[in-house]
Amino acid sequence: MAGLTHSILVVDDDRAIRESLGRALRLEGYEVVLAPDGAAALELVRTAAPSAIILDVMMPNVDGLTMCRVLRAEGDRTPILMLTARTETSDRVAGLDAGADDYLPKPFELDELLARVRALLRRAQPLDEVDALEVADLRIDPSSRRVWRGGDEIELTRTEFDLLALLVRNQGIVLDHSTIYDRIWGYDFGPDSKNLAVYISYLRRKVEGDDRLPLIHTVRGVGYTVRAP
Fold this sequence. Notes:
It is a single chain. By secondary structure, the chain is α/β, with parallel strands linked by helices. It has helices at 15-27, 38-48, 64-73, 89-98, 110-123, 158-169, 177-185, 195-207, and strands spanning 7-11, 31-35, 52-56, 80-84, 102-105, 133-135, 138-141, 146-149, 152-154, 175-176, 216-219, 223-226. Helices cover 40% and strands 21% of the residues. Helix 2 packs parallel to helix 3.
């Protein structure tokens, strides 16, 4: 059962979904705060300081993407699980670009949503590791959760940071999909899931853009590895 100290903010304009999620989360031991749209939710984030946010994309007044951008612009790093009825990769990338840590397409299984919430909360805990991680000109500071490539700092979401740190910590070793899913999400979404591929693609754009030498390599049929050029 989840720790009672964790509070979850559920933001969805569909009252039935909002209240059913609230009931399910309370049964898991979480404290729950509900909001019908992004405008109300922004006020609650500032007053209730939730441990994590479950955020619908399509809402009146202030939608999920806008709310996410506002929080990140303010420096708020509360873990965000975004819910979306859209399944195109471009729509998922839009959520990641806005600063979401994870996304889950509707309709979803409750067990999967709960597993993703648990994974977000685990990753939000302070890291014991303090030594910097390095490969080529990429440097990661786990204690401050900051990343640099050359002299440029790279802004990453919580999930992107955790994924990159896992790969760099195991540089030269090919990590298969199941291992990465288990270590990052705490849940294996199966061979048909595109979740990991989307995150790898987005991470490459941030870490390897501007004609930088590639560090993240795909091993077809197996998984991914980081190695110096």
